[in-house]
């Protein structure tokens, strides 16, 4: 793994002061986020889904692109969506696969997956009704209605409303980077049930190999070993995707399969 500042603790006061001195133009935006964070944490307390749904509503009020990746640039929105799509197609996604995208947003990458997959084979879920309305606008703008994608509002990552063994590919980009560990564990506890034989689950996360930490209640940094061990606890094998690190993206990526799938593939 390359050392892309893996030990930096972004929650430390010293780091925040240095960052503010280097980027004074970003201080007002961070201050607004901090005020919003304090208010929403008081309002929602232990309900992280409700908390982050409110964050998304606030960001989406500015623009859908800003709400997906905290970047208002249309060019960046297009570029990062294409990066996700090209990587997944290059690493196993085929048109006949059934795909679930967790945190589909306004279809930054989903519009490309929908166009590529067979009709009815894309299923996107998100916790934000505001961003799902923006996803519908993307479908119309891209003329993707004939591909019959499914878009659904979710309140957790237990997937109770989805069928067993249905999805060849599950994908979550920039979801775990905004999730406390109990939300990630909920996903790991249930994703194996909805994976089809031979299926896999790809996700990105903000990586640290130093002290795990969070910035406000929005950005979480985890060690690779923490997620690997948590996946194993729920019968999943997690593999670090080294080649993703060569791409111009700050997050890292892992691929999860079931341990039963490994036994089937490797054999006795």
Automatic annotation (TrEMBL):
It comes from the Bacteria. Transmembrane segments: none annotated. GO terms for molecular function: methyltransferase activity. CDD domains: AdoMet_MTases. Residues 100-201 form the Methyltransferase type domain. It comes from Streptomyces azureus. Pfam families: Methyltransf_12. Belongs to the CFA/CMAS family. Gene3D superfamilies: Vaccinia Virus protein VP39. This is Methyltransferase.
């Amino acid at each position: 793994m390359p050392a892309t500042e893996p030990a930096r603790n972004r929650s430390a006061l010293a780091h925040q002061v240095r960052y503010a001195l280097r980027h004074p133009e970003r201080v007002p935006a961070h201050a607004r986020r901090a005020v919003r964070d304090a208010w929403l944490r008081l309002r929602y307390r232990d309900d992280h889904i409700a908390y982050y749904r409110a964050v998304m509503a606030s960001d989406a009020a500015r623009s859908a692109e800003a709400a997906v990746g905290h970047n208002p640039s249309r060019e960046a929105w297009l570029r990062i969506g294409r990066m996700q799509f090209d990587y997944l197609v290059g690493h196993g996604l085929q048109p006949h696969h059934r795909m679930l995208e967790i945190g589909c947003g306004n279809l930054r990458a989903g519009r490309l997956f929908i166009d590529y997959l067979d009709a009815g084979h894309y299923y996107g879920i998100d916790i934000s009704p505001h961003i799902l309305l923006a996803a519908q606008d993307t479908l119309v703008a891209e003329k993707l209605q004939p591909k019959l994608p499914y878009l659904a509002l979710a309140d957790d990552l237990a997937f109770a409303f989805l069928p067993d063994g249905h999805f060849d590919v599950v994908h979550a980009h920039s979801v775990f980077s905004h999730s406390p560990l109990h939300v990630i564990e909920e996903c790991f506890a249930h994703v194996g049930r909805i994976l089809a034989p031979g299926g896999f689950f790809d996700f990105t996360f903000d990586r640290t190999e130093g002290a795990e930490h969070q910035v406000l209640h929005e950005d979480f940094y985890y060690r690779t070993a923490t997620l690997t061990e948590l996946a194993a606890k729920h019968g999943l094998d997690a593999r670090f995707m080294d080649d993703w690190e060569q791409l111009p993206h700050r997050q890292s990526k892992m691929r999860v399969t079931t341990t039963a799938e490994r036994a089937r593939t490797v054999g006795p």
